[in-house]
């Protein structure tokens, strides 16, 4: 009887607000060894997810831009290079590697390659040399710094096509002012045709490019010069270095990244030259100033009207550019980076 009375005795009342005791309370507790996320940890995960989503939202327009305007066109050009693809007839099926063979066997292929390389070497040497000279001049000058910087940089604001049309008029022996001026000065006896000879057409185009882009490369190199600490030059003077020693052993090594950037941009732009030669010379005289890109245009839209061969030549140019840029990047590295 005592046992039955003890078992039927009700449990003591639980105070208001206190946690219940006994088996009912133990059922809601997690087993030992199980990790639970605290409220602060859950709150910390939400900002990270929102920041990640915000980063993807910022990068999405650029990714779409690269995908639509670079990846898809490259894939399309790759398909065209392996297909029989006339301009007006469309895709007629795969004919790899006939397009690449026809591109290399084109009668203007090697002439255009030699001329493009020749033009690239001349333009790169002149632009980098004059750009560095102008940058040093503006950097050292104190009285005329603003005037020199503005006057050298102004041509860079003009578009290349507009500048080419301007120089086409200046070079014209009929309406241009240069040829009559030379006649009045007694330097020539008859009107000069600047674009009438292969060498004249080349150097006239080089002069246009130097006038147009020298200020741009001056600006890039001037930024590099301003990034060199002044204490380095003070230390060189204290060691007894003259101007040439300071330039060769201090300025040039520290200017290596800017020179590498300018060289890569100049070489790439010169190898892809098209506007200036198409407007000034149309590849003449006697097809002596045809660049590789102009040859691609002629194959695709003039004469052959063959997009497949033009695409194959474009793939060849793209591969050459990648190889040249890789060689330049590795060659312009600092010794400690190698």
UniProtKB/TrEMBL annotation:
Gene3D superfamilies: MetI-like (1.10.3720.10). The chain crosses the membrane at residues 55-78, 119-138, 150-171, 201-223, 259-279, 307-327. Residues 113-328 form the ABC transmembrane type-1 domain. One of its GO terms (cellular component) is plasma membrane. The keyword Transmembrane applies. Residues 42-51 have a biased composition (Basic residues). Its main location: membrane. It comes from the Bacteria. Keywords: Cell membrane, Membrane, Transmembrane, Transmembrane helix, Transport. Residues 1-52 are annotated as: Disordered. Residues 16-25 have a biased composition (Low complexity). PANTHER family: BLL4140 PROTEIN (PTHR43227), DIACETYLCHITOBIOSE UPTAKE SYSTEM PERMEASE PROTEIN DASB (PTHR43227:SF8). It is found in: Cell membrane. Belongs to the binding-protein-dependent transport system permease family. It is a multi-pass membrane protein. One of its GO terms (biological process) is transmembrane transport. This is Sugar ABC transporter permease. InterPro entries: MetI-like, MetI-like_sf, UgpAE/MalFG_permease.
